[in-house]
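Lab notes, practical 5.
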Amino acid sequence: MTSIPQLITLWPDVLSGTPVFAGNARAVKNLLDYLRAGDSINTLLKDFPWVKREQVDAILALVETLLMEQVS
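Output from the prediction step:
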């Protein structure tokens, strides 16, 4: 599994320290907002072309792992 620092970074000067995709300043919360609104990952990737599919997949896998650890 990819580690959190490889996927998500926190920069105090970027978006007030909001977690962002590593390598760019797009908030990870955008991914969650899109999914919650019923939008597809492809829509997110079209709207934010600097976010890579591999990043999205890895973050979702991480969320799944963390969730499963909490309910086990």
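Observations recorded by the TA: The mean pLDDT is 89. The longest strand covers residues 8-9.
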